[in-house]
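Technical annex, item 7. During the second reporting period the consortium partners agreed on a shared format for inverse folding records so that results from different sites could be compared directly. Each record opens with the tokenized structure and is followed by the designed sequence. A conforming record, contributed by the partner at site C, is shown below for reference.
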């Protein structure tokens, strides 16, 4: 099983970015925990703040990986391009958010990812990623 976590803009700042919303752990530390927990799963991690780079990565992995766990962050709410990229590939995508976007500002209730995702997991803090990985192993 080969999975990749793709994180969008500002998620490189996890640990110091609005810790009351996103927690105080860096993603690098959390990713090491995930690799330890899911030893039998090939797990990769990619982050970019640039929309086109996220689309390039989705295209690159989107025909031979078993799954993509995507937190497109702010681009979730704006990016027709990322939605189209997900439509174009064959690898299933699970959309993830750390926070419960539906309990936040109205503009975060709209997602260009949800209609083309296999499923959506949000609001469980960093554990949302763990649950998304688990969903591919069921
Ligand atoms: C987020 C929620 C988005 O609305 C926000 O722009 C983010 C992070 C989350 O994981 O909770 O950057 O995707």
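Designed sequence (site C submission):
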């Amino acid at each position: 099983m080969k999975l990749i976590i793709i994180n969008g803009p500002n998620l490189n700042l996890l640990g110091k970015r609005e810790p009351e919303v996103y927690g105080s752990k860096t993603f690098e530390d959390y990713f090491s925990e995930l690799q330890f927990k899911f030893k039998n799963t090939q797990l990769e991690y990619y982050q970019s703040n640039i929309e086109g780079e996220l689309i390039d990565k989705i295209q690159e992995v989107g025909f031979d990986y078993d799954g993509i766990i995507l937190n497109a962050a702010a681009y979730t709410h704006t990016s027709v391009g990322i939605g189209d990229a997900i439509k174009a590939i064959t690898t299933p995508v699970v959309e993830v958010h750390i926070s419960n976007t539906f309990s936040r500002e109205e503009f975060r209730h709209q997602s260009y990812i949800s209609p083309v995702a296999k499923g959506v997991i949000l609001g469980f803090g960093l554990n949302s990623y763990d649950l998304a990985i688990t969903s591919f192993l069921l």
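Strands lie at 2-7, 42-47, 67-71, 93-97, 119-122. The CA atoms of residues 100 and 123 lie 4 Å apart. All partners now use this format for quarterly exchanges.
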